[in-house]
Fold this protein.
Amino acid sequence: MEEMKVTKFPEGFLWGSASAAYQIEGGWREDGKGITNWDQFVRIPGKTYKATTGDVAVDHYHRYKEDIALMAEMGLKTYRFSVSWARIYPEGRGEVNPKGIEFYENIIDECLKYGIEPMVTIYHWDLPQALVDLYGGWESEEIIEDYVNYAKTLFKAYGSKVKYWITFNEQNIFTSLGWLTAQHPPGKFDDQKTFYQVNHHVFMAHAKAVLAYREMGGTGKIGASFAYTPSYALDCKPENVMSKHDYDELKNFWWMDVYAYGRYPKAAMNYLRKKGFAPVVTKDDQKILKAAAAEINFMGVNYYQSCVCEYNPMDGVTPYGTMNTTGVKGSAQVLGVPGIYKNPANPYLMTTDWDWSIDPVGLRYCCREITSRYDLPIIISENGLGAFDKKTEDHKIHDEYRIDYLREHLKELGKAIEEGCEVLAYCTWSFTDLLSWLNGYQKRYGFVYVDREEEEGATLDRYKKDSFYWYQDVIKQDGENLFNIINN
Ligand code: BG6
């Protein structure tokens, strides 16, 4: 729809930026915080780039006032951050830790002081280890009640101040890396049966938390954030087009359909039944999923890249191969599922140093697909470029590549809005530099450079990058400068 004339971003549009507790806070043993699955996992040799941990991370635990003051200086309208479950419940359940409650209360108050809307992610991958030791964490349905109890504690403590809630960050990613590729805790490999059952437990936890929020009188907006990698068929060869269809059912709609409709996609479920991997879903579960689907207010989208689908023969590539966690371009392998699809590189797109395709149109595609399939408002809860940044001797960071990346994505988002998508917020990943789970500290995403390397001991001082000033200007003009570029 190229003739669309874009005019402006909607009234009250939330220009934001995002983070996650484990990736920024540090203070891993402070003020009564319990040990998490990640605190343990990073200590297994070979699991993270140069054995990096979030023990100190970028020390947001002690520097949150400085960081939020920088957000205010930038003009941010919303800040998306996650709560560490183990700070609130060190054992995952039982006694609440008042110091944990206080820490996030301080963050929320600090945001509100500057007119920044806090957007809270309840779960961004760090799970109290005590629950893993007790019953295997997400593998047991016992966790559903513990998660809901934890979520209710947050609703009760912060519900009068927080109007945006994200139940889960990228359920599809933490379960895939946790139970299929062994790259995240609990480090299981190719355990497909457990993978689908774990996912069902997460869906139930999400659904029951959404319903609990409403039962408690919550009138804010609530939903989940999905890591959406939209797909394009390689060409019009029917097998390739069908491989795209299968990919979407298994990799995208499997999650989004449950959030939005409260049911699993049929063809994917049939396939998994035949394979013996389908989760056990009771009639009661179905009712709860449906009831919760009627209560969500948005689809959260974390968008980084798109992919290409091509038919993959039975003796073709598998889902398991080298992932680029070093920044050495070209080191990632083509992966896929035998008999269904594989994801070759897109010859029309450039890639980052970590081999992620750069596709601004893909963001628009996500918004259009969600609008036509689910008719839900959208929160872009993450979008950004991981890159090697260099600080010059006079403490400047010239990250024009990041500005280009964000500008092009925002232009496409603007078009999506003009085409009828209701987009409530756009959060870049990330505000400050932070720990990239598997890629150490060298893969930087922030508007604010943090002086640290993989080894501990640097100053952790903050420096504004060129992109900081650029986004500040975008926010000041409510994106109008972007639209001028599109329309002229
Ligand atoms: C998302 C996560 O997957 O992408 C973030 O929600 C993560 O936590 C981000 O950091 C970027 O991924 P990576 O692997 O480059 O750090």
About this structure: Residues 20, 23, 169-170, 173, 227, 302, 382, 386, 429, 436-439, 443 surround 6-O-phosphono-beta-D-glucopyranose (CB under 6 Å). The mean pLDDT is 96. The chain is about 40% helix and 10% strand. The longest strand covers residues 221-227.
